[in-house]
Amino acid sequence: MARKVILDVDPGIDDAMAMCIALLDPALEVLAVTAVGGNCSPEQATRNVQTILEQIDPPYWPRLGAASAPDDGLPVDGRHLYGNDGLGETNFLVAERQHLHPSEKVICDQVRDASEGSVTIVALGPLTNIARAMILDPELPSLVGEIVMMGGAVSGPGNITPTAEFNIYCDPASARAVFHSRSTKTLVPLDVTNRIVLSYDLFNQLPDESTKVGRFLREVLPPAFRGYRRQFGLEGIHVHDTITLMAAAHGELFTTEEMAGDVETSGDLTTGMTVFDRRRVPAWRHNMDVAVDMRADEVIDAIISGIRTAGAKAG
Ligand code: BDR
Ligand code: CA
Question: Which of 124, 140, 192, 221 gets the most CB atoms within 10 Å of its CB?
């Protein structure tokens, strides 16, 4: 039976690739895609979720949720990597839908409507919506099966400040609330996601232009490659979100360790930093599994195979 998932995303080209795979993965049933501000503004993130769905047009459309700003506003965005609109300024036309419910309501409704413990939330952006959903429905942490989150760093540096990873930095208070919640959680941090860099060879493996997924990815990926070269001098791209989707869908390819994690919510140098109690005798209680390793070659194979399946299935 397909695994029920809610994708919480801030597209972002990285999130867009993960969406393409998840929406057409026969092993997943995507109940909802909920937008959150991060790589771009909340309004743009909502528009991008609709754009991606229209471009891919999967046989079954999930519910959509609209993003709103985090309580303290967004301190940063991903324009440096993904362009002003988050999708490489590709200017897709989109027939915007009116009256979308807020993302946090959609999350609560979908988890309540499904049987207890059957829904996995795959959180690929700031944790604003997940924290708000937990305020809206305080039982949510025990009703949801698992939350698999892309964010933070255990030993390595951040990627938006020397100490903070982008998703956590965007809304540290929400990240802290989710870390503290009683939910079952798996964190996929930069330490693991940074290990994969997809090179230009990716273009040889994408579905061709005659498929919707091939057309879409061939349009949005070149700006991402340009962003990574400009920003980091890299001849390739990181796909943090797609790797996190793989951790949710193919957990056997990842090694995890139980850890006790928290988030720094203020500090001149450390706002948004994830902190783990890794002392010999920790005083904090374990509150999540953290990915510490992966079989990188097999993860790459699973990503390519997921994209190719999506290309074939969407037509
Ligand atoms: C995360 O930040 C965003 O730029 C990506 O979409 C990913 O979710 C990586 O730090
Ligand atoms: Ca993201």
Answer: 124
User: For the chain, what is the domain count?
Assistant: 1
Q: Which residue has the higher pLDDT, 98 or 18?
A: 18
* pLDDT of amino acid 97: 75
- Return the ligand 1 atom nearest residue 151 CA: 10
* Domain assignment of residue 7, given as a range: 3-314
- Asked if residue 151 has a cis previous peptide bond (ω within 30° of 0), the answer is no
Q: Is 101 a catalytic residue?
A: no
Residues with CB under 6 A from ligand 1: 12, 14-15, 39, 78, 124-125, 150, 159, 165-167, 240-241
Alpha-carbon dihedral 251, 149, 41, 215, rounded to 10 degrees: 0
Tens digit of each residue's pLDDT (9 = 90 or more) over 195-207: 999 999 999 999 9
Tokens of 187: 């964190």
What is the 8-class DSSP label of residue 100?
P
CATH label of the domain that carries residue 78:
3.90.245.10
Amino acid at 280: R
Amino acid at 120: T
Q: Using an 8 Å Cβ cutoff, are 296 and 195 in contact?
A: yes
Say which residue the tokens 């720094």 belong to.
264
For Cα atoms 33, 226, 77, give the angle at the middle one, nearest 5 degrees: 45
218-224 contact pairs (CB < 8 A, 24+) = 219/88, 219/90, 220/13, 220/16, 220/87, 220/88, 220/90, 221/13, 221/17, 221/88, 222/88, 223/13, 223/82, 223/83, 223/87, 223/88, 223/89, 223/90, 224/13, 224/14, 224/81, 224/82, 224/88
Q: Is the dihedral of CA 253, 255, 258, 261 positive or negative?
A: negative
Q: What is the pLDDT of residues 4-48, one digit of tens each?
A: 999 999 999 999 999 999 999 999 999 999 999 999 999 999 999
- The SS3 call for residue 259 is strand
Rg (CA), the chain: 18
**Which of 80, 101, 240, 286 is the catalytic position?**
240
